[in-house]
Structure formats: C-alpha cells, structure tokens
Amino acid sequence: MIKCFLPLLVFFTLQVSSQSKNDRIEEVISLRLKSKDQKIKLEDRIKYAVQSVDLAKQIKIDSSLILSNRQLSLLYYEAEAYDKYLRLNKENIEIAQKLNDSTSIAISNDNIAIYFHYNQVNDSAYFYYSKALKFYDDKKLSRKATILLNIADLQDTEKDYYGSEENAINALKIFENLPETEDNLDNLWILNNLLGIVSLKLGHYDKSLEYHDKAERVSRNMRNGFYNKIYSTNNKAFVYRKKENYSKAIELYSSLIQIRDQYDDYDPAFYPLVIDNMAYTKLVSGSKNFDEMERLFKEAYKISDTLNDATTKLQISIDLSKFYLNRKQQDSSLKYANMAYRIAKETSSNEILLDALKVLSKLKEGEDGKSYLNEYIRVQDSLLTVERSKRDKFARIEFETDKVEQANERMSEQLIWLLAISGGLLVTLFLLYIIITQRAKNKELKFEKEQQQANEEIYNLMLSQQDKVDEARAGEKKRISEELHDGVLGRLFGTRLSLDSLNFSEGKEAISNRATYIKELMTIENDIRKISHDLNTDFVSGSGFMDIVSELIEKQTQAYQLKSTFNYTDDINWEMVHNKTKINIYRIIQESLQNIYKHANANGVKISIQLKNNVICLSIVDDGDGFDVNKSKKGIGIKNINSRVNEVHGKAEFNSIINKGTEVSITIPYKN
Question: Can you name the residues that pair with 616 across neighbouring β-strands?
C-alpha cells in the first residue's frame, strides 16, 4: 500500500510546485503589463516594474528577468534616473551573454548608445551602436537601419563625412525595401536630408540637391509631411546659394516667406531664419537694395531675440556683422560680431565662432586684431586635431568590435563542435551500454577499460617526450640568439667602429691597424662557425679568465673611446667556476659596455669583480646620463642581462641617477 502511495505523493508534489511557478510567472507578466499602462502615474508604474524584477529574480528565470529589467530601465529613463537606466542595461548584457541571447544583447547595447547619443558623448554612443549592430540579426532590419542612421549622424557631427555618407546610404537601401509605415517614411526623410547635408559639406552640390529633392518627395507621402517639406525647401535654397544660383535660392526663400502663417505656430524660429537667409543671399548676390536687406536682418534679429532662441540669434548676429562690415559700418558690425562671439562660446558653436573671430580680426586694428587672428588659428588647429582624433577613435572602436565579433564567432563555432562531440560521445556511450547490457560481456568490458588506460599512458608518455624535445629546442634557440646578439654582434659593432675611425688615416700604422681588425673579423667568422658546429665549446679554456675579460674591456673601451678601470680579486679560483658562469659574466660585461656606448654618453667606466661572503660580486659603474630604471625595464639590453643572471642563479640590481650615471651590481653564488 505504501509503495503505491509514494509515487502518487511525489507526482502530486511536483504538480503543485509546477503550478505555483506558473502562477508566479503569470504574476511577473501581469506586473510588467501594469508598468506599461500610460494611464497610471509614472511613480506607480516604476513600483510595478520593480516588483516584476524582484519576482523574476525569485523564480530564477533569466529570460523573464531580462524583459522585466528592460521595462524598468525604460521607466527610469523616462524619470531621468540615468544611472539606474545604464546599470540595468549593463546587467541585462551580462545575463543575455550567459543565455547566448543575441537579440537582448543588441537591445541593451542599443539602449545605452541612445543615452550617450542624447547626451552628446559621441565616442561612447558610437561604441555601443557598433556593438548593437553586430548582434542584431536580419530579422531586425528596421532596427539595424536605424542604428546605421544614428552612426551616420554621429559621424556627420564629428566631421567624418565619408563614413557618414557610407552608413547613411546602407541604411537608406534597407529602408527603401521596407513597408511604407510612418516611422519608415520619417527615417527615409531623415536619411535623404542627412545625405543632402553631407554631400553639401563634401562639395557635391548636384548630389546634395538630388537628395533634398528625394526628401521632399518622401514628405508628400507622410501624414504630417508639410513641415518636412518646408525644411527640405529651405535646405535646397541654401545649396543653390552655395552654387551661386542666387535667383533660384531667392525664389525658394520667397515661397517660404509667403506661407509663414502655415508654420509660424509650429516652429516660430523658422521664419526669422528664412528671412535672414533671404537677406544674406541678396547681399552675396551683389544686390544694392541695402535698405531691404537691413530691414529683413533686423526683423529676423528682433524675432529671435523675443523668442530667446540662441541658435537662430547666433546665425543672424554673424550675418548682420558681415552685412555691416560690407557696408563699412564698423561700429554696428563690431556690435553683432561681439554678440555672435559671445553666443558661440556659450553654445560651443565652433564654426560660427571661427566666423566671428575672422570678422573681429578685420574690425580690430593692431594687437587686438592680431589677438583675434591668433585665436582663430588656435581654435581652427584645435578643432582639426579633435576631428582627426575622433575619426581615429571611431576607426579603433570599429576595429575592436570586429575583433569581438570574430572572437564570438570562434566561440560559437567551438561551442558547436563541443556540443557535437559531446552528443557523439553520449550516443556512443549509450550504444556501448546497450551492447554490454545485452551481451553481459563483463570480461570484454574490463579488457577494453584496461586497453583504454594503456593507450592513455602511452599517449601521455608521448606528450611528455614531445614536451622535453620542445623544451630542448626552445632552450637551444634562446642560447643561440643570446650568443649571436651579445657576442658576435657586439664584437662586430666594436670592430666596425674601429675601422670607421681609420677611414681618414694613412700611413704604415693605419695599414697595420686595418690588418689587425681584418684578422679580428676572421676571428669572428671562426667564432660563428664554432657556434654552428659546437655550441658547448668552452671558449675560455686554455687561458686565464681574467686575461680574457681584461682584453674584452680594453678592446671595447678603446673602440668606444671610454676611459676605463678594471679591478679584480685573485681570491677566486676560476678553474673551479663552472664554464656557464664564466661565459655569462663575460657576456654581461660585454652587453653593459655596449649599452653604455649606445645610450649613456659616458666618458668613463669602472668595472670590479670581487669575492664577498662566498659570493662573486660584479660591479659596472659609468658616469653617463643615467636613466629611469622603472621605465627601461623592458629594454632588450636589461632583459638579456637579467636572463643571463637568472641562468646562474644570481641577482641583478640597477641603480641610476639622471645626469650622474648608472651602477649595475651582479651577485652570483661561488662554488669552490
């Protein structure tokens, strides 16, 4: 009876647990829906969203937590709690990465990018847009195109016009193949308008007009496209002015002035901008109707001043200053130039700031004029530097995100292979289990297990042997490299310097010296041959070690034109010192002398070898320029010395004072 009841009890418990979890999932969804209800106050909607997040964490369903976090972050953005907005989106990226949820990764990066874009932190916005773009799949074409549009806008702001044009065209191609919804039409207008502006900045006037014409055609299909249409007309008029087709520009501006009543309530700052452009176009066209121009300029200025619209007032002020400069009314020109200068500084409008500085440099005489001109040059150079830096940074961000994408692709590929291998292994084990169970061949299973263990041992032995071979090869390569760099190349360098010093010498003594150095070159040739054929040759055998060291110091210092002193103790029995130790001491001295010549600008060097407390103490002191020890630790010379000291279980210490010199202290155990 108990045996029958127990399974029923377990089944009933599991059913209740499952039902309880489903109920809580439904509650999470319900709270999330309440947080989206626009009829509820924002404060209460945030409370519902927080409850939804907390409950999703309790039931430990990450996919539900991502959705709740996302909704709460949007409410925080609406409430201008930007720190919490960023934190939740970054948290969502981490959760989505664990789930391999590329869409959620893309959305969170996209949300962060929008925040930075709005706050004009353009490099961060570009970084997160680029990451989002890599994770959106082809099902999210509209969102991918919108990101391309936003990136193009950032690049236009940072004056990367070619990059902006490329991304805007790619976005345009996508939107042109999407259904004609209001959002898609709005984006089509924005893209054509942006391409018209960018083409103008690149000096492609006809192409600019084509894009503005396309934008105007798109506006006709929009539900509320009237305002888009008048902005396109204004932009076209500006392009015609740049093309010096003044009559066409004036015609378009006039058409906008005539319909003022249709847009004045919607955008009161547009009319003063239009009449300012009309007046300035007449000025540059060579019109002599100065009274009408002045009336239009002043009307535009008065309206913008009443509206307290800094951007429009700035443009009108600089145009007025140019108008009065043209009329040679310096006081009036100066008044509006100063006004434009002040507003441009306050609003960081750098292009108009440059215009204002140029006008002021013409109006002011003497040092004041030079001061404005110098500021103009400084601001222009600074802007060019910043522009180049931003473009380089964008390029680096794109390169790094490409690297991340490649790494993700490799990880995905490795994961697929791992899953495939794991699946194959599971199937194999399952089939093996069935065979073993059906045939009950325990002896065969034991035999197979023993075989497998034997194979693993043989394989591990082979790996161990290969490691030893590789280690030996690596050690041999390193030793050969150090021998060539520290030995042969150093002597070649010294001999070449000595021969160079004899280029302009004549006579028997010079001939004799040349012969000596040619013999030295032959000796070096033999040394190279010896290194190739017998790497373990003890080059110090057959002569006193201190004599060899003395000869090295004498030759090197003579070639380097250094004064030298060499002191050593007789307490060391060099015959009892291992050859490897002697070789490394020799090479350390040689490397140090070469470093002193190349980098120290020293006049003299003192070298000492002593025995203290059963330790060989090598000291090399120069009177050169000195160097920052912390900054130079990665130099090849210091690396080689440290490598050699480590080989003989010694210690190296570098002490240097700028403009006073350097001391290298080496201590090596002495085994008598």
Answer: 611, 668
How far is the C-alpha of 136 from the C-alpha of 400, rounded, in Å?
17
Q: Which class is 563-672 in CATH?
A: alpha beta
**Residue tagged 């090869």 (tokens):** 473
Tell me the C-alpha distance between 630 and 580, whole Å: 29
DSSP 348: T
β-pairing, 661-669 vs 651-657, is antiparallel
370 Cβ neighbours under 8 A, 6+ residues apart: 361
For residue 57 the two structure tokens come to 């964490």
In this structure, how many other beta carbons lie within 10 angstroms of the beta carbon of residue 139? 9
> What CA–CA distance (Å, rounded) separates 418 from 422?
6
Indicate the angle between helix axes 82-99 and 62-78, nearest 10 degrees: 160
Instruction: Give the Cβ contact number of residue 330 at 10 Å.
Output: 14
Our CA angle for 571, 572, 576, nearest 5°, is 140
Nearest to 528 by CA among 584, 485, 471, 573: 485
- From 171, 202, 201, select the one nearest 189 (Cα to Cα): 171
Ranges of H-type helices in 286-365: 290-307, 310-326, 330-347, 350-363
Under 8 Å between Cβ of 149 and 171: yes
In whole angstroms, give the CA distance from residue 194 to residue 173: 14
pTM of the full structure: 0.56
10-residue mean pLDDT profile of the chain (672 residues): values are 48 48 86 92 93 91 91 93 93 92 92 92 92 85 93 92 94 93 95 96 95 96 94 96 95 96 93 95 93 94 92 92 91 90 87 85 82 80 70 61 58 66 79 76 63 43 43 64 68 71 68 75 75 54 71 89 90 85 89 87 92 92 86 75 89 89 92 58
Whether residue 31 contacts residue 53, with contact meaning beta carbons closer than 8 Å, is answered with: no
Name which of 71, 76, 101, 96 is nearest 86 in CA terms: 76
Distance CA 120, CA 113 (A): 10
> Are 437 and 429 within 8 A, CB to CB?
no
Which 3 state secondary structure label does DSSP give 310? helix
SS3 481: helix
Distance CA 309, CA 639 (A): 64
The ranges assigned to domains in the chain are 441-537, 563-672
d(CA 495, CA 555): 9
For 506, the token pair is: 């004549």
Task: Tell me the residue length of the chain.
Answer: 672
* Distance from the first to the final alpha carbon of the chain: 89
CB 665 within 8 A of CB 617: yes
